[in-house]
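Is this the right way to post structure tokens for a design question? Let me know if I should format differently. Anyway, here goes:
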């Protein structure tokens, strides 16, 4: 049977799909990248905000159209949209052969294997869907924070850490397979272990991961400000292969709105953390996510946010419009912000950040940056890479105009030009290899397969 798995949404969903692919591979099926070549389509959906829901429904309807055209025989839907709306979806789109939740990958395989009569249902190895030089490591599932706008706790369930030994084994196996950048994800990575070990064990986990020699870059995403410790700042500043990159979604800066959002933290605390990170981790790339148009957001709140962005100068910033989700407390909050006001505020913040990003990138001209080369762009006639400050899919890129570079390798690049969301440069002709990498791991134990 030829099966295609399409993933929508966040890296956590991607990891789920990769385990599903690994489980399916063990069932003697042929995995195909092109849905047009598949007999069975599996859609791993996203469903936490309006835009994501619409994208997932469009993808389901496209798959159903392929089934109606005879291009494929079966369509299965899994992930957060069907976790959240299985009943409605079954009623509205009966052409789908099965709707599964986001913790049902075993059931999906069982359903498929029953058809194949292979009776295998163990989820084993992951099949990476990212380029072979980077991969995500999902350290926990679910969330128990009370953020009043967020549907994720209702979709993904309670906070559940994965056992440390499993994570270390998985990270080592990823490294052995050629992964050089490991991106650590969770709903909130700062409380790793709390549920499983009765105490937060993020630092012991990071300590174990940084000892995996081949993993040159480790990027920590989704840190929750209320739990961001001074020890974590120290750890990042002391460990070269934990990248000088901090992703800390704060959502807003107005104390009044942060209380209404139930974000367990306030302006003063957020500013203290940022000051601590900037002090201990010079040159850090600070990324955050901000929400515009939360119920009750006044012009004054918005101006406070503009001033804060102007003062803090985030290197990377994600801006989102509030999405009114029916099963969240904020859904019933009064004082909705009119859509046109939301869009005006969003545009103003985007313009402000674009200017800040341009200025910051201009300051990098003349510097040397470590860049991971990812692909060759024929249109740009240049290699495309990412610097330490660029997470895949969400941040900037570096264009490197060179004759011949190796994809998946690290180079030192002299920055010669900059735009708001990209840098341009030339390599110093030096590919980074074991000899060029400083690390707290003694050199003689390196095995840099590259
Ligand atoms: S911490 Fe993030 S995932 Fe958890 S409830 Fe808040 S916004 Fe949602």
């Amino acid at each position: 049977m030829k099966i295609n798995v399409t993933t929508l949404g966040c890296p956590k969903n991607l990891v789920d799909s990769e385990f599903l692919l690994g489980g399916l591979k063990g069932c003697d099926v042929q995995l195909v990248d092109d849905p047009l070549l598949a007999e069975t389509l599996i859609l791993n959906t996203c469903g936490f905000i309006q835009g994501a829901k619409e994208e997932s429904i469009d993808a389901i309807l496209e798959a159903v159209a392929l089934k109606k055209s005879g291009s494929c025989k079966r369509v299965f839907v899994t992930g957060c949209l069907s976790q959240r709306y299985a009943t409605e979806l079954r009623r509205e789109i009966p052409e789908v052969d099965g709707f599964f939740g986001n913790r049902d990958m075993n059931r999906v395989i069982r359903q498929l294997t029953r058809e194949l009569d292979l009776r295998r249902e163990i989820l084993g190895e992951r099949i990476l869907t990212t380029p072979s030089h980077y991969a995500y490591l999902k350290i926990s599932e679910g969330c128990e924070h009370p953020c009043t706008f967020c549907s994720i706790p209702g979709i993904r369930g309670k906070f559940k850490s994965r056992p440390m030994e499993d994570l270390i084994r998985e990270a080592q196996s990823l490294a052995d397979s050629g992964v050089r950048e490991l991106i650590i994800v969770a709903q909130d990575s700062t409380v790793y272990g709390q549920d499983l070990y009765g105490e937060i064990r993020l630092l012991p986990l990071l300590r174990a991961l940084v000892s995996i020699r081949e993993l040159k870059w480790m990027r920590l995403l989704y840190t929750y400000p209320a739990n961001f410790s001074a020890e974590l700042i120290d750890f990042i500043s002391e460990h070269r292969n934990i990248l000088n990159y901090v992703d800390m979604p704060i959502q807003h800066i107005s104390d009044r709105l942060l209380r209404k959002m139930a974000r367990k933290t306030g302006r003063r605390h957020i500013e203290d953390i940022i000051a601590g990170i900037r002090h201990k981790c010079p040159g850090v790339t600070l990324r955050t996510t901000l929400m515009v148009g939360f119920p009750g957001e006044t012009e004054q709140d918005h101006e406070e946010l503009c001033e804060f962005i102007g003062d803090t100068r985030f290197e990377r910033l994600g801006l989102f419009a509030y999405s009114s989700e029916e099963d969240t407390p904020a859904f019933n909050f009064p004082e909705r912000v009119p859509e046109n006001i939301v869009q005006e505020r969003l545009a103003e913040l985007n313009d402000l950040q674009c200017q800040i990003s341009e200025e910051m990138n201009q300051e990098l001209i003349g510097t040397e940056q470590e860049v991971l080369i990812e692909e060759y762009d024929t249109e740009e006639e240049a290699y495309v890479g990412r610097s330490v400050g660029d997470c895949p899919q969400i941040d900037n890129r570096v264009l490197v105009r060179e004759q011949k570079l190796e994809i998946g390798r690290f180079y030192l690049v002299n920055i010669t030009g900059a735009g708001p969301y990209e840098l341009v440069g030339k390599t110093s002709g030096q590919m980074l290899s074991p000899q060029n990498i400083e690390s707290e791991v003694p050199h003689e134990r390196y095995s840099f397969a590259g």
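Format looks fine. Someone answered above. Worth noting: DSSP finds 13 helices and 18 strands in the chain. The pocket of iron/sulfur cluster is lined by residues 143, 145, 147, 150, 152-153, 187-188, 224 (CB under 6 Å).
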